[in-house]
Amino acid sequence: MENEKSSEYLHGTHPAEQERLSLLNELLNAGSLRELDLRGLERVLDVGCGLGQFAREMANCTGIAVVGIERSAEQIAAGIRLGIEKGGSSLVQFRQGDAAQLPLEDDEWGTFDVAHTRFLLEHLREPLPVVEGMVRAVRKGGRIVLEDDDHDLLRLWPEPPGVQQLWQAYQKSYEYLGNDPNIGRRLVALLVEAGAKPVRNSFVFFGSCAGHWRFAQYAENLIGVIQTARATVVEAGLLDAAQFDAALAALREWSKDATATIWYAMSWAEGRRP
Ligand SMILES: C[S@@+](CC[C@H](N)C(=O)[O-])C[C@H]1O[C@@H](n2cnc3c(N)ncnc32)[C@H](O)[C@@H]1O
Q1: Tens-digit pLDDT profile for residues 129-141
Q2: Model-level pTM?
Q3: Residue 50 CA: which ligand 1 atom is closest?
Q4: Beta-ladder partners of 146
Q5: Structural domain of 52
Q6: For position 33, which CATH number holds?
Q7: What atom of ligand 1 comes closest to residue 117's alpha carbon?
Q8: Is the CB–ligand 1 distance for residue 54 below 6 Å?
Q9: What's the total number of domains in the chain?
Q10: 191-214 b/e (C-beta count within 10 Å ≥ 16 → b)
């Protein structure tokens, strides 16, 4: 039963969404890796690893396979196919399971050097048990790295008609599912509540402007992410279908404007196990 799930994943796992997730990875992974600053040989756990693209990039830096936890069998199957295509199939050890009950062996707890998660906590009704599990998974002094959205930070210029209301409705669709669209600002607090010692926070810039060679892809990601929430937004009565479609069409039109600009950043927080 949907309502009894620990989380409901707003974006779904159909092939078009998997393509959007791949695109997002292409746009964001360099920034995430820069902040992570892996030195090599770290044992890394990636929680809610999706298709495993970022896990694979981390493994390329450490030289050791990353353990990736993912609940969805569809995501894992697509991730394995992608790994074979990209020639890095042994870099991610996918494990199917719930992030709140990490499927680790008894002798794996307390052994990881880094536990990382990105864009998972925003989809959970109760993010704290997940962060607590990540703290238990790393060794003493090990790093716990949380990356997530604070959707309130988005600014578009010029403002396309109806898109502020659309973005508000998108954020409220998280609340409708019992999730927090602004969890980014709470990441340090979550680390402390989970028993970690916070050491650093940061932003990974995730914006772009017309004229940048990848701007069209950033706009496509933004349009795609909103599109996946259409059914939930309409079901929750946050906008009707016609309002939703008109605002999304305005956003598409806006993306061709010579001055179109996306200002956005992903929240980053890092703690250590005492
Ligand atoms: C937005 S994707 C992010 C994937 C990856 N971390 C990235 O940054 O590319 C979120 C992923 O978390 C998975 N997920 C959602 N709830 C989960 C849970 N309770 N346990 C494990 N995975 C979960 C979804 O299936 C989805 O693949």
Answers
A1: 999 999 999 999 9
A2: 0.95
A3: 27
A4: 117, 269
A5: 2-272
A6: 3.40.50.150
A7: 6
A8: yes
A9: 1
A10: beebebebeebeebebbbebeeee
